[in-house]
Specification:
The chain is of the alpha/beta class and about 120 residues long. It has helices at about 55-60, 80-90, 100-110; strands at about 15-20, 20-25, 25-30, 30-35, 40-45, 65-70, 95, 115-120. A 5-stranded mixed beta sheet has the order 5-4-8-6-7. It has a 3-stranded antiparallel beta sheet with strand order 1-2-3, with helices on one face.
Length: about 120
Amino acid sequence: MRFTQDTTDGAHVIRSYADGEFRVDDRRIRGGLILSATEILEAPELRVFEDFGAAHLERIFAMNPEVVLLGTGAAPRFPEPAFTARFWSRGIGFEAMTTEAACRTFNVLIAERRRAVAALLP
């Protein structure tokens, strides 16, 4: 899937996503990814939903997001309430969706200058 022109003024943008590969700006990344407007954290150990652990959550929280998008791969999957409660208890919005949808939504939020973080499974 290819995305359209952005207006993000230097923020990281997802240019494309297909077959487990992301193109962020001009960089190609295979495997999992945690991304904000200012940080790219490659996470090749994130291959499936069950790979998310406490260390990943701490990396996400350190980015100081107002909303976190979880891209769950080709099919939507929804985490247990205890997982999402860790975000809500910190006042952070949380949405789980397919990775393709999370890529599009991330770009929109970044264009709106929102403090979004996307945790994306390939």
